[in-house]
Automatic annotation (TrEMBL):
Residues 127-150 are annotated as: Disordered. It catalyses: 2 [molybdopterin-synthase sulfur-carrier protein]-C-terminal-Gly-aminoethanethioate + cyclic pyranopterin phosphate + H2O = molybdopterin + 2 [molybdopterin-synthase sulfur-carrier protein]-C-terminal Gly-Gly + 2 H(+). The gene is moaE. The keyword Zinc does not apply. InterPro entries: MoaE_sf, Mopterin_biosynth_MoaE. Keywords: Molybdenum cofactor biosynthesis. NCBIfam families: PRK10678.1. This is Molybdopterin synthase catalytic subunit. It comes from Stutzerimonas nitrititolerans. Transmembrane segments: none annotated. Its EC number is 2.8.1.12. Belongs to the MoaE family. Residues 127-141 have a biased composition (Basic and acidic residues). Pathway: Cofactor biosynthesis; molybdopterin biosynthesis.
């Protein structure tokens, strides 16, 4: 299991390929990459600044990862999230789950993203033509996270 929070860009393909390297027991890898868009809610977006609480953020991501590892038979799990200034088109988040079979990898990847959107201490500020604005959480994100409660 790996949790990273960083300012540096990353290569999503390299991250995905690294998940199954040197482990022939992995039969499935599911990955998700989130990108900064040039629009949000019908508004143009020229950039984004992502703030976080160092230490607290990594701990929160670690708890999400721990819960995923307890729920599914994962062989590897990676969560990588960028912070700081970002431009449209740049990758902002990577979640990769590896397992012997696809169902666990798919479910774990979706679970981590759903929980990350609602439980991770990140704050997004977009740069728009009307000035900077903070991005609010969405009800659909909370509903998706609530659907995992058992």
């Amino acid at each position: 299991m790996s949790v990273r929070v960083q300012q540096a860009p990353f290569d999503p393909g390299a991250e995905l390929n690294a998940l199954h390297a040197a482990n022939l027991g992995i039969g499935a890898v599911a990955g998700f990459v989130g990108y900064v868009r040039d629009f949000n809610d019908g508004r143009d977006v020229a950039g984004m600044f992502l703030e976080h609480a160092p230490g607290m953020t990594e701990k929160a991501l670690g708890k999400i990862a721990d819960e995923a590892v307890q729920r599914w038979p994962l062989l590897k799990l990676e969560i990588l999230h960028r912070v700081g200034p970002l431009e449209p088109g740049e990758p902002i988040v990577f979640v990769g789950a590896a397992s012997a079979h696809r169902e666990a990898a798919f479910d774990a990847c979706r679970f981590v993203m759903d929980y990350l959107k609602t439980r991770a201490p990140f704050w997004k500020k977009e740069t728009t033509p009307d000035g900077p604005r903070w991005v609010e959480g969405r009800e659909s994100d909370q509903s998706a996270a609530d659907s995992w409660r058992s």
